[in-house]
What does this fold into?
Amino acid sequence: MAKLIDGKAIAKSIYDNINLRVRELRSKGVIPKLAVVLVGDDPASRLYVNSKEKRARENGIETEEYHLDGSVAEAQVTELIKKLNVDDTVHGILVQLPLPKHMDKQRVLSCISPDKDVDGLHAVNAGALMTGSRGFIPCTPKGILHLVKSTGIDVSGKRCTVVGRSSLVGKPAALLMLNSDATVTVCHSRTADLGSITKEADILICAAGRPRLITADMVKPGAVVIDVGQNKIDGKWCGDVDFEPVEKIAGYITPVPGGVGPMTIAMLMQNTVEAAENTIVG
Ligand code: GUN
It folds into this structure.
């Protein structure tokens, strides 16, 4: 039976550290602040933004929300971002995704100053991850690496399979694992015979957005299984992993909810505090 990786408990220990750092910042007159840009009325985005803002407040990080109508021109969003870039009281800028279809996501994200890009989605930060240099790492992949390391297994030399190739999760998660010396395979919706590849993985990261895609026969006995899926079925959360049968085979597994989700928000807070600290140090 797999050991549960308790994302909530691990996130709590990260908040303890964040609290200390926020206190230190405040003692120097720096009040960390996260600006949140929400465009449109996607209910899931609204919920995510509410959770992020609540966590920030609980940890002494101020938030400023800019909620724009879903029909606004892209230029209105980019003008707002440019104003936030030069506002010295703002340390982090988060543009909640998805953006309305008439906007070019990457063009909007590229307006965020890389120093305030606490989501790590600007091409400069994506490039830093690619080259293994310093930069903001996207929150979900950063949280995933924490969860994997919490098991105590040495990532170096392990076979890691990432299912999903999004810019938000799959691709950066693959790069992070590669930077930790894992042997990485990336699978996606066009991958032939997915199970034969996932079954080889010592570390399996599932970020496909397909409920219960990963069944027990696709998992190597003893593997570390990280489930990034957040699917709602009949009012209940379920991941990309068929939890009960896979739990019997895996060595470690994250629950949904209570696994990756709490870590994503904790990493956003960590990146925001780091952005604020950088204004003092550098
Ligand atoms: N939408 C879903 N997840 C995320 C995230 O981590 N960051 C942003 N900006 N938008 C999201």
The two ends are 48 Å apart (CA to CA).
